[in-house]
Amino acid sequence: MNHNQQSYVERLGSIYEHSPWVAEKAFAMGAPLKGLPLILRQIVEDAGPEAQLALLRAHPDLAGKLASTGALTAESTSEQASAGLDQCTPEEFAEFTDLNDRYKTRFGFPYILAVRGRHRVEILENFRSRVDNPPEVEFREALDQVHQIAALRLAALE
Predict the structure, then answer these.
(1) N or C: which end of the chain has fewer CB within 10 A?
(2) Residue 38: which residues within 8 A CB-CB, separation 6 or more?
């Protein structure tokens, strides 16, 4: 990896959680910074279901074990804290744990929601409403949420 590519990937590699391959592909395409959200989104959409599933699985549980141990990425820590997920009551934490387990068992990837600007009560309501969705509906919703998260992360870099 040359210096320009390394700088590009270091700056943009965490836009999609633990998936620097998206930034690497954008660099290889010569993607300009202008219009980058749409370019990155298209890279993910064109990657196919296997790569998309890996991308979904790279996301942490909301209010999960990684958050309580401080093992989240800086971006995820900030996003979850902005929604008050680091201040859950014991009852809310127990419900998040139960929903996370049910969701991952049903879909094979964690529940994903762009949480910035939302409150944990709103997030729990959304979580409850999605846990029984059909798998194909939820896969699409999770990808759309990943794209929203990426757009918010890109905007924060500007």
Answers:
(1) C
(2) none
CA pair distance 93, 73, nearest whole angstrom:
20
Q: Are residues 114 and 148 in contact, defined by beta-carbon separation less than 8 angstroms?
A: yes
Residues of the chain by 3-state class (helix, strand, coil), percent to 5: 70, 0, 30
pTM confidence score: 0.88
Looking at the structure, give the CATH architecture of the domain made up of residues 3-157.
Answer: Orthogonal Bundle (1.10)
- Mean pLDDT, 10 residues at a time, over the chain (158 residues)? 88 91 94 88 97 95 60 69 81 93 97 92 96 98 97 89
In whole angstroms, what is the distance from residue 18 CA to residue 109 CA? 14
Q: Is 155 within 8 Å of 12 (Cβ atoms)?
A: no
Active site residues: 59
Angstrom CA distances, 49 to 7, 21, 45, 59, 68, stand at 28, 15, 9, 16, 31
